[in-house]
Design goal:
Layout (H helix, E strand, L loop, with lengths): L14 H6 L1 H22 L9 E7 L17 H12 L3 E7 L2 H9 L4 E5 L3 H4 L2 E10 L2 E6 L4 H4 L4 E2 L1 H5 L6 E4 L8 H9 L3 E4 L5 H6 L5 E5 H10 L6 E6 L7 E8 L2 H17 L3 H8 L7 H12 L17
Parallel strand pairs: 1-2, 1-3, 6-10, 7-8, 7-9
Antiparallel strand pairs: 3-11, 4-11, 5-9, 5-10
Length: 323
């Protein structure tokens, strides 16, 4: 008896059933393509610089951070830092512009590509990315004519502000409406007791010292030396650390707009800082506007805060001035 041939299944004409069978067949291919895509994304830089993309660097008329005119134009600490960064980032188009910090933050909020140098503050951290520590400086010091305080205290590099204020034979000067950071409470009480000469906001403190209208003033040490150099009296003044102010350097960072562009820019800036900051040439820039008495202290702060070399006495943060 002959067995009938196997029936050949008829090809389905139902398109729904045919389509339902495809995902299973394509799944291995899709997984392989997905893995390749993820690998490619991981290997690609998150934000390569676009050739000719502009960076706006904020500057100000604020010696010795920025020196905008005169024979020392461009020799401010931040002027020199900007020049180093710009040479190290040739893929960008660089432009500097004088502006206030208020304007800087306004531009950052609107997403514009802008960078500045300053101290970390909450309102800045909300709209910007910060670099590694880039600049270290001494805060407010006592400045006096050479020999005046040495005749009383000897060859010292620091003085007690409270002791100075209590001396009837010395006249100290401060600027009216000036913010002196952590020293404000001490100075405000001294002003109320009549222990200080309050000078108008635009007063030339170096001139006041040289003309003996006051015996000492409270000011940023580097600015006093810069101003004294301008009038040919660079070596006529001496600066003294204020003991009540403590061991508190000012540490500034580069900060750029908090967006993808800014994060990439800060990575590039950090790479340059790691290479440049340990060099003797960079230390010379930081020390340039300090007198020999102040330089050893600045160098210690540089080693602690910029190079990360800790001494037995760690430097404490200070309430910074408006920078």
């Amino acid at each position: 008896m002959t067995r009938p041939p196997h029936p050949v299944p008829a090809r389905s004409s139902d398109p729904t059933r045919a389509a339902a069978s495809r995902p299973a067949a394509l799944l291995p291919v899709a997984l392989a393509l997905g893995a390749l895509l993820l690998a490619a994304l991981a290997a690609t830089p998150t934000r390569p610089a676009v050739a000719g993309e502009r960076v706006l660097w904020a500057t100000a008329d604020r010696p010795t951070s920025y020196i905008l005119r005169g024979p020392d134009k461009g020799r401010g600490v931040v002027d020199e830092l900007y020049a180093i960064l710009q040479r190290g980032m040739p893929e960008y188009e660089h432009q500097t512009q004088v502006m206030t910090f208020g304007r800087v933050l306004e531009m950052m909020r609107s997403g514009e590509n802008v960078c500045a140098v300053g101290f970390p503050k909450p309102e800045r951290e909300a709209v910007s990315c910060f670099s590694l520590p880039a600049v270290v400086a001494l805060s407010y010091s006592v400045a006096a004519r050479k020999g005046v305080l040495e005749a009383i205290y000897g060859d010292v590099d620091s003085v007690s502000l409270q002791d100075l204020l209590g001396r009837a034979d010395l006249r100290g000067g401060v600027l009216q409406k000036r913010a002196y950071g952590d020293l404000n409470p001490i100075l405000s009480r001294a002003e109320a007791r009549g222990e200080l000469v309050v000078l108008p906001p635009g007063a030339d403190l170096v001139e006041m010292l040289l003309k003996r209208r006051v015996d000492y003033v409270i000011e940023i040490a580097s600015f006093m030396r810069y101003r004294a150099k301008q009038v040919g009296a660079k070596d006529a003044l001496a600066s003294f650390v204020i003991r009540e102010h403590g061991d508190r350097p000012l540490v500034a960072h580069v900060f750029c707009t908090r967006n993808e562009w800014g994060r990439h820019a800060i990575k590039r800036i950090n790479t340059i800082l790691r290479r440049v900051c340990p060099t003797p040439q960079y230390l010379e820039i930081l020390e340039r506007w300090y007198d020999p008495k102040a330089r050893p202290l600045l160098r210690r702060y540089y080693e602690e805060r910029i190079l990360g070399i800790r001494s037995a006495r760690p430097a404490r943060p200070s309430q910074p001035p408006q920078q």
